[in-house]
Amino acid sequence: MTRHPSEPEADIRVPRSHRSLGWLRAGALALSFALLLLVAAAGPSAAKPGLGPRGWAPGDLPIALSSAVVTAVLWTAYLLGAFAVALGLWRGVAGDRCPPRVHPWLWPVALGVLALLTAPIGSADHTNYAAYGRIAAQGGDPYLVAPSTWAGGLDPVTSAVEPPWTMTPSIYGPFGTALQTLSSLVGHDNLRQTVWVWQLLIVAAWLMVRLVLRRAAVDEVTRRRVDLLWTANPVVFGIAVLGAHVDLIATALALAAVFLAARRPWMAGLVLGATVSTKVTYGIVALAILWSWRSLVRKDLVRNVLALTVSSLAVFVSLHLWAGPHVFDQLQKASKGVSLATAWRPVVNLLSAVMPLDAARTVVSAASAVAVIVLAWLLSHLVGSRPATPQKSSTETSLTQRRQSAMTAMFVLATAYLLGAPYALPWYDTLTWATLPLMLGTALDAILLARLTVMAAAYVPGRVVAMSPDVESLTLGFRKIVGPLAAWLVWLAIAGAARRGSSRGASPSRPGTP
User: Fold this and answer.
1) This prediction's pTM
2) β partners of residue 107
């Protein structure tokens, strides 16, 4: 049941069945968030590495969870969260009136505060961040020095890095390293304090994404999609926020750059430089911005491109000069990886039986590039941004249209890459889920929700240590079998949805088309 913006709220008549489903969804959300926060607040487990003395940072609850229990709890939490989001999509976000509305920022801030009372779960990546920041803060080169070798392996922060990353220098961009260094300088030689400072940055980035999305939303329906798919999505929250991954910071910067580009290309360039200097794969943001400018007159286009290029390069070059000549060393090695839960892992396994492993990876890299292009083409026919409502002036309308164009292009490029690339982890989906709320609701919502849920479950509990043999066998089996199968099914589902939309002749507007 949809309310027209001009209708008073008192006139709404929500059927009892809708109210019941609303409370069912609210209960599933509450339980999902509670289970995730419980794992994050409990003591060290297979999902949560120990961080040593807490210092002035929050400590752990005196609760010990075995690897089997923590796996079951996280699977339950993610399934409940996915169910709640799916229920919201099925009911229609525009007519969702239960539970009663509160101040739009009260509950997100409260949820962020609760996250800050816990420690990260789902991987040990945050110990890597702390180690690289520690090395940089003490004058070392995190792109050259392995964490376990720093200070003879006796440093209280760098020695906490876990397999398989103990001998791996940093792969993150220099802006990410700068933030990690800041965390280390504040946290000193206490790992828990250092990680907590990093969590502050993560929660701030999560709230910043919501702020940008609400500013970019063109109507109330889109703002409701923001909270349905981003803020009140336990799967995204558990992976990106409670996981404390650097991808969330890069995503917040990416959205800020796109939002600023329509009006302030110089500022957008500064943020873009920081974005690409956090994760180099976020260079797609520049392509999205340029795409949104293609309808500008030549003079304005040249001026905007010049401003964006000069300011972004100023930041990018400065940060890379500060970081040193070894920034891209690990990136080149990582580009050859093929993760277990992608569609390409079984292909590599089959090819490696008849050719050298390096040759098999080369073939897969070429095939994945083709797949990304095809997926981008399919997605461009499937998605579209919500039509902008007329503004007070034609200038404001034009700015809104360019902003929507860039967001749509960024969604298409990011999603095509994560679905077609040979190496993908659950938190790589962050940029897709940060832009999906601004798109028109299509079958893609459910397809991507199913994919994210499978990816989240495939990487539970998340660490490569502290698991019983049975749990390790179960989770690795899920990752190796269900992950690739789900990836193939997602490809087929997207192709089918794009074909159905094309056959109806009702394809949503393409990126850049208002």
Assistant:
1) 0.91
2) none
